[in-house]
Amino acid sequence: MSTTTTTPAPPAGAPAAEEKKGPSRFNMNTLLVEGRALIALVIIIAIFAIMSDNYLTAGNLTTITKQVAFNAIVALGMLMVILNGGIDLSVGSIVGFTAAVAGNLFRGVPVPGTDATMFPSLWVIIIISIAVGMLVGWINGLLIARLNLAPFIVTLGMLYVARGLTEVLLNGQNITNELRGQEGLNNTGFFEIFASRPLGLPLAAWVMIILAIIFSIVLNRTPFGRWLYATGSNERAAQLSGVPVKSVKTQIYVLSGLCAGIVGILQMANISSATADLGTFYELNAIAAVVIGGAALSGGRGTVRGTIIGAFVIGFLANGLVIVGVSPFWQKVITGAVIILAVAVDQIQQIVQRRRSSARAVASAKAAAARRQSTDQTSARS
User: Fold this and answer.
1) Is 6 domain-assigned?
2) What is the mean pLDDT of residues 119-141?
3) Domain count, the chain
4) Residue 123 belongs to a domain with what CATH number?
5) Where is average pLDDT lowest: 73-82, 119-128, 191-200, 207-216?
């Protein structure tokens, strides 16, 4: 006996729906949602370029790109979660935890019952560390999807669990020299690979580009992407349509853990150390990038390109504030105000759209009633 799973159409505003409208992939709604982030980015660049001659130098742009890449990669995972109507507050702690696991693997793993110590090869260390990040994400997804626990509570708790485990692994000590590995153990070359700049761009930027392409394909071209938009728009309707809601919800947290794990490795190479505070506040930057990029916190709306633009807005703003000498305390105030403004503009836009939709519906109903009345009068005369 075979069963057929019906894949619901994506909601209005999702990228998959836009593709059916012809060669132009942007409709007016997309322009309003993502255009404001792009306009904000252009304004930020223009203002700081006028205020400082060092802002648009090649060296500074490379620095901005690297920092943006770290936030953008985490934000891509956060986008998947927010599209589902969830939230992941644990990603920053997963970044630090992944780096701590990798650092301890570089130190060597004692073999139980013996005096021997095992030193995994470089790529085994990387794979295990990122897998640990995915495992933490899977636990989040399992608790949220299978036990119906609130994403905020689960991921907030995991934030503390992962950060605590990071401190336990590091035991108050940063791991630095061990990251270079040892000749003969096949675990050298970490910095040469992960701190390299292929074609002049930091490796983190290339990883961001590759992941952005993959995530765009997943959201726009696969059933999983349509399922994700559907569950974020109306979970109950998606479930009745045959969407594996619990499976989708679990997988998005695994993807979020994957992105955080990748950034943990990249950041460890960037600062040449595994530290207990690595990844702090990454969850806030990721949420901000997704929201500024036009995603709805209620789920069902958001794109990869918008998230990348949002990450660049935060990156260029933060870097510009540093260059012009704004106090670190005021930097936080300004960044927070920008996030609040982005959410407020989004809410105002949604209110306006709902009113316009209601007005069109009322006008259509009146027009239909007038046509029926005219038809009835014509029939009566006959």
Assistant:
1) no
2) 96
3) 1
4) 1.10.3470
5) 191-200
Determine, yes or no, domain membership for 166: yes
Domain range for residue 78? 15-365
In a domain, 378, yes or no: no
In a domain, 380, yes or no: no
**pLDDT (0 to 100) of residue 31:** 59
SS (H, E, C) the chain: CCCCCCCCCCCCCCHHHHHHHCCCCCCHHHHHHHHHHHHHHHHHHHHHHHHCCCCCCHHHHHHHHHHHHHHHHHHHHHHHHHHCCCCCCCHHHHHHHHHHHHHHHHHCEECCCCCCEECCCHHHHHHHHHHHHHHHHHHHHHHHHHCCCCHHHHHHHHHHHHHHHHHHHHCCCCECHHHHCCCCCCCCCHHHHHCCCHHHCCHHHHHHHHHHHHHHHHHHHCHHHHHHHHHHHCHHHHHHCCCCHHHHHHHHHHHHHHHHHHHHHHHHHHHCCECCCCCCCHHHHHHHHHHHCCCCCCCCCCCHHHHHHHHHHHHHHHHHHHHCCCCHHHHHHHHHHHHHHHHHHHHHHHHHHHHHHHHHHHHHHHHHHHHHHHHHHHHHHC
